[in-house]
Amino acid sequence: MSRLRYEIGPIRPPNEAYSLLVRFTRNCPWNRCIFCHVYKGKKFQRRTLDEIKSDIDTVKTISDHIRELSWRQGLGGHVTEELVQSIFASGTYNDSFKSVAVWLFFGGRNAFIQDANSLVMKVDELVEALRYLRKTLPSIDRVTSYARSQTIAQRLSVQDLVRIREAGLTRLHIGLESGSDTVLRFMDKGVTKEQHIIAGRRVKEAGIELSEYVIPGLGGKKWSVEHVVETADALNKINPDFIRIRTLKVTREMLLHEKFIFLRLPSCKQFHSPAPNY
Description:
With 278 residues, this protein is α/β, with parallel strands linked by helices. It contains ten helices and eight strands. It has a single domain (14-263), classed as Aldolase class I (TIM Barrel). Helix 9 links the parallel strand 7 and strand 8 (242-245). Helix 4 runs parallel beside helix 6.
């Protein structure tokens, strides 16, 4: 039983720290943004419905086992701090068990769909996977995911998004990063300001909560004003439910680091500047 595993991707939004992580796709279908190194060198893959459902079934089995442990320890089926600590300390249970234990301890109500852009799935398959998740793990009442504006603007209608919401998706996290087309092109984001606005408005119209991410300093000194003004304009036109700020930190693993070297910037040895001098 303790050898049971399900697949977990590399990242999730900070506010999904205690959510169940369920991997519908692997890696990123775009994977060209020069400020992101998470998926570089990794191939994007669509997981099959059978794979996704199998992982969900595994989570259910692990969850049932943890509750059985609770009964055996005299905790009445409750997943307490004491029970979670015993699972982490035992040396018997793998990361899948530990993840489910933490998820149950914090209520077992939230799930985050991985990886970078689950909306690239066929709508019918995504709908079926979401319904299966909700049916198999009925304690879940909030399901969120990352998505790309370009995918929504070019491939999905409001009606498609309504179907996805009705199947169980409640919130989307989208990396706006900047509203400046100049900055978006430089960062090879693969989306325009107009597509960001179209996508955000569609998500809102479909009744899905929207969280937009912005990176201050992404315009460097050269495009600092344009970055601020155009980003504010885009956000005002989208009117998302949440605006989240992510600090820029340029590391050697990023393609953006190569831009520093190419441009021979005087501050390139630090790689921590929130305002690169492009």
